[in-house]
Amino acid sequence: MIDPNEPYKIQIAKQAKIIEALINRAERGHEVGGSAYSLFESAIALQTEVWEKTKDLEKALDTLGRASNELEIAYQTQERIQRNLADAMVAMEDGFALFSDERLQVCNAQFRYLLPDVEPLIKPGLGFDDYLAAVNASKYLSRDENGGISRPQPQVTEQRSGQRFSSFVMELRNDRWFQISYRQTSSGSITVLQTEITDIVRENRREKNRLIDQQAHFLQAAFDHMSLGICTFSSRGELLVRNERFGELLGVPLSLLKKGSPFQRIIEHLERHEILERKGRRSKFASWFKAMRRGETMQERCRRRDGMSLDIRIHSLPGDGFIVSLMDVTAETQAAALLEQRVQERTAELTEANRLLQIHAIEQIKIEAALRQAKEAAESAHTSKTRFLAAASHDLLQPINAAKLYLSMLTETAGQPGAEDVVGRLKRSFTSIESLLQALLDISRLDSAAAEFNITSFELGSLLQGLTGDLAPLATEKGIELRIVPSTRWVTSDQRYLMRCVQNLVVNAIQYTERGRVLVGCRLRSNRLRIEVWDTGSGISEVDQTRIFNEFIRAGGAGKGTGMGLGLSIVERACRHLDHPVRLVSQPGRGSVFSIEVPLAAPGRASVCENPMMEQMLDGSLDLIVMVVENDSDELHAMTQVLESWGASVLAAASTVDAAALMQEIGTAPDILLVDYQLDDGDNGIETIRTLRALAGIEIPAIIISANRQRQFLQLCNEMSFAVLNKPVQLVRLRALIDWKTRARVA
Questions:
Q1: Cα 455 to Cα 496: distance, rounded to the nearest angstrom
Q2: Residue 678: which of 704, 710, 658 has the closest Cα?
Q3: Which DSSP string do the residues of 269-285 spell out, in sequence order?
Q4: Which Pfam families does the record cross-reference, listed alphabetically (predicted)?
Q5: Which one of 178, 345, 369, 628 is most buried, by most CB atoms within 10 A?
Q6: Is the Cβ–Cβ distance between 491 and 528 less than 8 Å?
Q7: Are 570 and 544 in contact (CB under 8 A)?
Q8: 466-496 b/e with 16+ CB inside 10 Å = b?
């Protein structure tokens, strides 16, 4: 019966009417019933309803009071904001105005008094477009050269949020400049700002004039110090700039070389006084002037009456002007005349020389033959390189494509039978890619004229022992017995390249042997040691024995291997540089023997962990704090996952700065640093190691990952006492190297 949304006065009036109706009802009931009990019941019901209505009325009055208080606070806040806005506008040095709904709401005095004829219009309610039109029509704007008024041209741009923004500059009389800009706010209002930029414009004008004067001074100074005679003319042929050398060479009075002198007048003076000798009856100066007008370049060599020879050149300039340059070529002319005289004298000498040339004809033929052979060799090398790159590109794409297919299969068959086989095939595909890249890098280094080798003395047994672990799975997969006879001999060679050569020979023997075994052993030959690789394969014919050391060549009739035909090419190149003779003995159907002879060396003392790369993966948790610095996010994540799976606590950083900040944050130095060499923005792993060691005050063990094998880089690594791990990283060697470096620190 009572709507709570109605005004409180109406609700109270309705409640009073309801109470009055209830009382009347009670009285009528008393008259009709005449029963005391009925009257009592009516009184009780009436009292209950009165209490409920009274409570509702009290709640309504309390709500009304709170709303009144909040409204009063809002009014006070609004007044305070308006006062602050007014104070801020008064304190502003620039003109400011606020338009709401395209109508002027408030502005300061600077905004109102900018243009006297617009001032009467600046009142609350002024339309924004009307304001712009009034400013554009003001008579206080400066006039242009044609007597017109410079009108402001606002350039309205649309911001990303859809709001308008515009800014333009206008010039007032008495050389005053203002910038007017307006911006539409997020609420739809428009703020207008008037900023005086007179001082900035005048300063820019003064700086521009100063630079023009300075450039003119520099140009004149450059002209005066030139050995050439230089003179520039305007498009109307009036003299602009010249140097003293121009007047000296041309022999023209200074009165004709003043600024503004016509070019035609100078030409007429030359003809009248015949300063320059004529080669014909007609004057050539007239053709100069016409050619200059057409914008052509003219060059003429003339001779003065006193015998001086001049080289005259006329070039066009931007703006239809032109420049005239004079050069004294007397010495050159005299030299040419002298040369012409000497030519005749030398004719006899040349005849004699011709006779001598005929005597040397046979020698020339020999030289040409040698050059022809060299050219053919170069062309053959170029063809070989082209064929090499084409085949390498194809062989690179093959395993990559296979790897992508295996990845797709692995995604679809994850958790299903056969997934392990797919992973194995994927691993072999990437191993094939790695082998090919290593072969390409080795051939590139060996073909380079600056190929470097690290010749040392070492025990051969460690190399042969490493072959057992690396190649035994390949031999087992083909069902071939691989036997390597141990050796304690010491040799002198490049350890990395020698191991690469022996490994290539063993891999070839395994690939081209269908059944039987492969034997690796050593034989002593005087002061040299012969490393031999025997196999029971199909053998190599005599024709193929002369060509299998070339790129991409496989022996005819041999079983199809998985290689690219680069292994023996690497062996031949490396052993040729190292002066290690390579020999081959083979019989078709019975097998082959490849051998490499290396110099013997006196036995030395080997370090316990001289070659930690050959150690097997160690068991147990890697309870270390490892700092990994890698700029590639994917490689950083992968390395972090591997190290954490080994039990290490990993601190991952992308640069030297991040690594230093991370070490300062944890307050302690890591147990070992694992750093990539090539980082972003000129940063590198060596700088990272230096910075972190200096920050920690101790020599933190470090391993740097790089494909750089230059001798200077390896020497620097040795001086700074950190290890180098070549890319691509093999996890078994990484784990062994980490344990070796950390054990050395504890020791």
A1: 10
A2: 704
A3: HHHHTT-B--SSSS-SH
A4: HATPase_c (PF02518), HisKA (PF00512), PAS_7 (PF12860), Response_reg (PF00072)
A5: 628
A6: no
A7: no
A8: bbeeebeebbeeeebebebeebeebbbbbbe
* Cα–Cα distance measured from residue 610 to residue 127, given in angstroms and rounded to the nearest whole number: 89
Query: How far is Cα 582 from Cα 596, in angstroms, rounded to an integer?
Result: 5
End-to-end, the C-alpha distance of the chain in Å comes to: 96
Within 10 angstroms of residue 380's Cβ, the number of other Cβ atoms is 10
pLDDT, mean of residues 386-415: 56
Residue 392 has pLDDT above 50, yes or no: yes
> Which distant-in-sequence residues (6+ apart) come within 8 Å of 708 by Cβ?
677
* CA 313 and chain centroid, separation: 48
Supply the DSSP string of 509-541, one letter for each residue. HHHT-SSSEEEEEEEEETTEEEEEEEE-S----
Burial of residue 729, with CB atoms counted within 10 A of its CB: 0-12 exposed, 13-18 middle, 19 or more buried: middle
Phi, psi of 371 (to 5 degrees): -65, -40
The CA-based angle 554-556-557, given to 5 degrees, is 120
pLDDT at 185 over 70: yes
What is the longest distance spanned by two Cα atoms in the chain?
A: 170
Strands 490-494 and 528-535: unpaired
Segment 110-168, tens digit of pLDDT: 888 888 888 888 888 899 888 888 888 888 888 665 554 444 444 444 444 455 678 88
Tell me the pTM. Answer: 0.38
- Tell me the CA distances in angstroms from 451 to 319, 336, 441, 533, one per residue in order: 59, 53, 12, 27
CA distance 743 to 747: 6
Kindly provide the b/e burial profile for residues 712-721, where b requires at least 16 CB atoms within 10 angstroms of the residue's own CB.
eeeeebeeee
Q: Which of left, alpha, beta for 162 (phi over 0: left; psi -120 to 50: alpha)?
A: left
The Cα-based distances of 410 to 64, 100, 398, 634, 641 in angstroms read 72, 64, 18, 20, 20
User: Taking the mean position of all CA atoms in its chain, how far away is CA 540?
Assistant: 52
The H or E element that residue 676 is part of is strand 672-676
Residue 464: Cβ-neighbour burial (10 angstroms; 0-12, 13-18, 19+): buried
What distance in Å separates the CA atoms of residue 691 and residue 678, rounded to the nearest whole number? 16
Per-residue pLDDT band for 612 (boundaries 50, 70, 90) equals very low
226 vs 737, residue with greater confidence? 737
Give the tokens for residue 456.
Answer: 């040392």
User: With 80 as the cut, is the pLDDT of residue 295 above it?
Assistant: no
Read off the pLDDT of residues 489-531 as tens digits, 9 standing for 90 and up.
899 998 888 888 888 888 888 888 888 899 999 998 888 999 9
Half-sphere exposure of 344 (CA within 13 A, CB side): 5
State the pLDDT at residue 596: 92
The whole-angstrom separation of Cα 94 and Cα 72 is 34
Residues belonging to the chain: 747
